[in-house]
Design goal:
Arc Repressor Mutant, subunit A, five-stranded parallel β-sheet, 12 strands, disordered C terminus, alpha/beta, Rossmann fold, 9 helices, 41% helix, 2 domains, globular
C-alpha cells in the first residue's frame, strides 16, 4: 500500500483517480494547487505524486523542477493534455518519472502507477543473471543496489527513481542484450506507449554517467557490456 498525492484542479478527475487507487488499497490525498502540493510533498510521506502540468497557480513542470533542486526525489507521473514529443521530453528531463496524456485509459494509468511504485521501492529481482553482491563496479561507475545509489569516480550521482530502475536492470543483466520490450515491461509494466520515455531515460543516464556504459543494440535494445576480465574469467 502506498500514499499517492493527486495534484489536479479538476475535481472529477481527482474523484475518478482516487477511487481507482483506493480500490487497489492505496491511500490517497489530493491538492488542487501547486502550493498545497509542495507543502504535502515536503512532509516526506508521499510515495508517488500524480502531477497535472497545468495548475491554476504554477506550472507543474516548474513545481517539479523546484522539488528536484531541493533534493526531493518523490516519484512523479506527469498528467497533461499536451501530447507533443518535445513536451514529453521536457517533462522527463526536468525529473519526471513518467508522462501520461489526458484522456487516459484507467487500466494503463494503474499499470504505470504500479510500475513506478514497484521500481521506486526496490521491486523484485529481475530474471536473468543477477549479481551476488550488493555492489557492482563498472569503472568508473559503482552501483550500490542495497542503497539504490550510483557513484561516478567516487562522486554520488543523483538519479530519478525510474532512471535508476533502467540502469539497475541493465547492470544486473550485463553482458546480455536486453530488448526494449523487456526493459519497458520490467520498469513501466507495459511496452505500449513508453518507447520514447525509455529512450529519454537512457539519454539522461548517458549524460549523467557517460556514453560508454549503456550501448545501443540497433533494432533490438540495450546492453551494459562486460569488461575483458569478466569475459575471460580473470
Amino acid at each position: 500500500m502506498a500514499r499517492v498525492l493527486v495534484v489536479d484542479d479538476d475535481p472529477r478527475l481527482v474523484k475518478v483517480v482516487s477511487t481507482l487507487l483506493r480500490k487497489r488499497g492505496h491511500q490517497v490525498e489530493s491538492a488542487p494547487t501547486g502550493e498545497l502540493a509542495r507543502k504535502a510533498l515536503q512532509r516526506g510521506d508521499i510515495n508517488l505524486a500524480l502531477l497535472d502540468v497545468n495548475l491554476p497557480d504554477v506550472s507543474g513542470l516548474s513545481l517539479m523542477l523546484q522539488l528536484r533542486e531541493e533534493g526531493n526525489h518523490t516519484p512523479v507521473i506527469l498528467l497533461t493534455v499536451r501530447t507533443e514529443v518535445h513536451d514529453q521530453a521536457l517533462g522527463l528531463r526536468l525529473g519526471g518519472d513518467d508522462y501520461i496524456a489526458k484522456p487516459f485509459n484507467p487500466e494503463v494509468l494503474l499499470a504505470r502507477i504500479e510500475a513506478v511504485l514497484r521500481r521506486s521501492t526496490g521491486g523484485t529481482a529481475p530474471h536473468g543473471e543477477a549479481t551476488s553482491s550488493d555492489r557492482l563496479e563498472i569503472p568508473p561507475i559503482l552501483i550500490d543496489f542495497a542503497a539504490r545509489q550510483v557513484f561516478h569516480d567516487g562522486e554520488a550521482v543523483r538519479l530519478a527513481p525510474m532512471e535508476y530502475s533502467v540502469l539497475e536492470y541493465l547492470a544486473q543483466n550485463r553482458g546480455r542484450a536486453v530488448s526494449k520490450q523487456e526493459l519497458m515491461m520490467h520498469v513501466w509494466g507495459t511496452s505500449r506507449g513508453v518507447s520514447r520515455t525509455l529512450a529519454e531515460h537512457v539519454s539522461r543516464l548517458r549524460r549523467k554517467l557517460g556514453d560508454g556504459l549503456i550501448i545501443t543494440q540497433i533494432g533490438y535494445g540495450y546492453i551494459v557490456p562486460r569488461d575483458d576480465s569478466e569475459a575471460t574469467g580473470q
